[in-house]
Specification:
heterodimer; A: Rossmann fold; 4-stranded antiparallel sheet; 8 helices; 12 strands; B: 435 residues; 9-stranded mixed sheet; globular
Chain lengths: 249, 435
């Protein structure tokens, strides 16, 4: 599914990722944990193809195809979905308008006809119900005036609508209370399938109680310093990052 | 002997046109028209030497437009259809500066409403043609008074509330068109006016010279939408003068999305306390379109509120101008006057001149102004791309979102849909593939 090979990346001329290797097989959920400043968000932006995040060495393959020469929208259409740590507010653009454009862009890429307004609305409402979101969020401007939790829920809502093959969750748990966290996790779990993979980026172990990973990686100073099973997350929680980082050094 | 000047040729054209203009049989009217022409001759066209015309030049006009009134003409009914509201309305359509009865709808006017074309008015003409001033800054309004061939006259008696909007739809011509309008709302009267200037489909250069007067009595409410979508060959200059009585409310939305050079100057005078004025503008300029909004709000009395929000989307070599003048008279305490100008420049050669002009002579007031200029937000763009949306589509959505703040000032329903469609029609032409 996803293969990251010796990935080096620069932001503002400074190398942040110093050679990351990571393979996620279809159906697997991998967690990347790490202290602040370890390069977690950089990794997610590099995968999504954000401007200014320059890959200097290595490659990223999705189903054997390199993502590096693709624009962000092409990656999204190929099935990469980044749930943003800080979802962006877009005044004046209704959530429904935005999401329907996105759904139809992805459908077009797959050779499917546009989803008509009625079907879109019906599908969207069903997904919102699943996430316990009020339908009024469809008519509101994208993320404008949403609470932190509502923004994160809106990210997962978009993910449910777009049904990506690779879900990247960047600190989706930050700003969520425990109830919202459960709802969001259920949304992600509902998408789990043998063909769909996920990369869950998080600082805390808490989210991983609800989205149980197959593999846990520890990222520090731009490198993966340790890889293990789901118990590694518990160990991190108990010991803190300092010990693990020190052990690996 | 040198060739006659532009102004001499206009004067000659006036001699031949005078007999066919409305009110030609009324000595008071003909005298007023002659005085207006004399005033224009004295002052000539406004130039950049005037502060109010600092950024907008009409110099091309003298070379490009025949200095004579337009002949009769016609417009494709499909264009009229596209420019008008789909639901119930009272409607006056003007083509080449002349009332088009067949395209208009005036049947069933309620009691207390007088709505008619200027060409059918009589006793009101002296008031309609009243002078806006005898100087270079108002010379175009005087030229308009000299030549005004038609226009809209709307008068509501005290307490009358019109439940349908009044539409004024005008199509220009490859010559000089002078429409002149007067709207008077009585005590607590209420109306909605949609004033549209549209592209008649001609590639030839024309000149629309518009003057409008609006008088709101105590407690009157007017919602005034103005849509300018003329051809890229058209010169459009309009002067609107609004007098707002005590406790009256004037809500104005002006969208300008066309014209070679298009200018809408609006002068608002607060004539009574506790009145409220909300003015929102949207400029959509591409190609070499030059679009100007010039405002002068005069808080002449205490306790009034005004708000101005102007947004500009400028592409190619377009040029937008916003001059927001606010004057607060010495005794106009408790004035609340806000002003904001926001601009997206989408190309290297796109330009905006945005100039707040605040003259505050009272000490107990709340006044603020601000301006921002930038490109489409890179974070917003990336967020949309990360959902699979192309850059071109994302930019269109972002521009539409930027414009929506102004569009949403229009009352919800058919009216807002109409304005939104007008804006979207411009946006869908936005070119693809910008990085």
């Amino acid at each position: 599914m996803l293969e990251i090979k010796n990935l080096h990346a620069k932001v503002d001329g400074k190398e942040i990722l110093h050679g990351i290797d990571l393979v996620i097989k279809p159906g697997e959920i991998h967690a990347v944990m790490g202290p602040n400043g370890s390069g977690k968000s950089t990794l997610s932006y590099v995968l999504a193809g954000r401007d200014g995040y320059e890959v200097t060495e290595g490659d990223i393959l999705l189903n054997g195809q390199s993502l590096l020469s693709m624009e962000p929208e092409e990656r999204a259409r190929e099935g990469v979905f980044l749930a943003f740590q800080y979802p962006v507010e877009i005044p004046g653009v209704a959530n429904a308008t935005f999401l329907r454009s996105a759904v139809n862009a992805v459908r077009k890429h797959k050779g499917l006809a546009d989803m008509d307004a009625m079907t879109f609305l019906k599908t969207a409402k069903a997904k919102m119900k699943q996430l316990q979101m009020d339908e009024k969020f469809l008519q509101r401007a994208v993320n404008v005036g949403f609470s932190g939790g509502e923004k994160k829920r809106n990210e997962v809502f978009q993910m449910l609508m777009l049904e990506p093959s690779l879900m990247i969750l960047d600190e989706t748990d930050s700003g969520l209370d425990i109830d919202a966290l459960k709802v969001v996790a259920e949304g992600v779990n509902a998408l789990r399938s043998p063909e769909r993979s996920a990369l869950v980026i998080t600082h805390y172990q808490r989210l991983l109680d609800y989205i149980v990973p197959d593999v846990v990686h520890v990222l520090a100073r731009g490198r993966i310093i340790k890889t293990g099973g789901k118990d590694l997350a518990l160990e991190l929680e108990a010991k803190g990052y300092a010990d693990i980082v020190a052990d690996a050094a | 002997m040198s060739a006659p000047s532009f102004i001499d040729r206009l004067s000659a054209a006036h001699q031949s046109a005078a007999a066919s203009l409305p009110g030609a049989a009324q000595p008071e009217v003909t005298a007023r028209r002659q005085a207006a022409l004399d005033s224009f001759r004295r002052h000539g066209l406004p130039t950049a030497r005037l502060e109010a015309w600092k950024f907008t030049s009409l110099t091309g006009l003298e070379r490009q437009v025949p200095p004579q009134p337009a002949n009769e003409g016609s417009v494709d009914p499909a264009r009229v259809q596209a420019a008008t509201l789909p639901g119930d309305s009272f409607r006056l359509v003007f083509v080449n500066g002349r009332f088009d009865a067949a395209a208009s709808k005036l049947a069933g006017l309620p009691k207390g409403v007088r709505l008619l074309p200027l060409s059918q008015a009589g006793p009101e003409l002296p008031a309609v043609l009243a002078s806006a001033g005898d100087d270079r800054a108002t010379s175009l309004a005087e030229l308009n008074a000299a030549f005004a061939s038609d226009g809209l006259l709307l008068q509501l008696d005290d307490g009358v509330a019109l439940d349908r909007p009044v539409e004024l739809v005008a199509f220009g011509a490859p010559a000089l068109v002078n429409l002149r309008h007067l709207v008077r709302l009585g005590h607590k009267a209420e109306a909605t006016l949609v004033e549209s200037y549209r592209d008649a489909g001609s590639a030839e250069t024309g000149w629309n010279n518009i003057a409008a007067g609006i008088e709101l009595a105590e407690g009157a409410k007017l919602t005034h939408i103005r849509l300018q979508g003329e051809s890229a060959a058209t010169y459009h200059a309009a002067l609107g003068r609004v007098s707002v009585g005590a406790q009256a409310r004037y809500a104005h939305v002006s969208v300008q999305a066309g014209g070679r050079v298009a200018r809408h100057e609006l002068q608002v005078e607060f004539a009574g306390r506790d009145a409220e004025v909300d003015i929102q503008g949207l400029v959509l300029a591409r190609g070499s379109s030059h679009v100007d909004h010039t405002l002068r709000l005069h808080h002449a009395v205490p306790d009034c509120r005004s708000n101005q929000l102007f947004k500009h989307v400028v592409d190619d070599q377009g040029h937008a101008v916003f001059q927001g003048g606010i004057r607060v008279a010495p005794h106009a305490q408790k004035t609340d006057a806000q002003q904001l100008s926001r601009t997206l420049l989408l190309a290297d050669r796109a330009q905006i001149d945005t100039k707040p002009e605040l003259e505050i002579l009272a000490d107990d007031v709340k006044c603020s102004h601000g301006a921002s200029i930038g490109d489409v937000d890179a974070q917003q763009l990336f967020y949309m791309q990360a959902r699979g949306i192309s850059v071109a589509e994302a930019r269109r959505l972002l521009l539409s979102g930027f414009a929506y703040e102004v569009v949403s000032a229009v009352p919800e329903g058919a009216l807002r849909d109409h304005v939104e469609a007008f804006v979207e029609a411009w946006l869908v032409q936005e070119k693809d593939g910008q990085a």
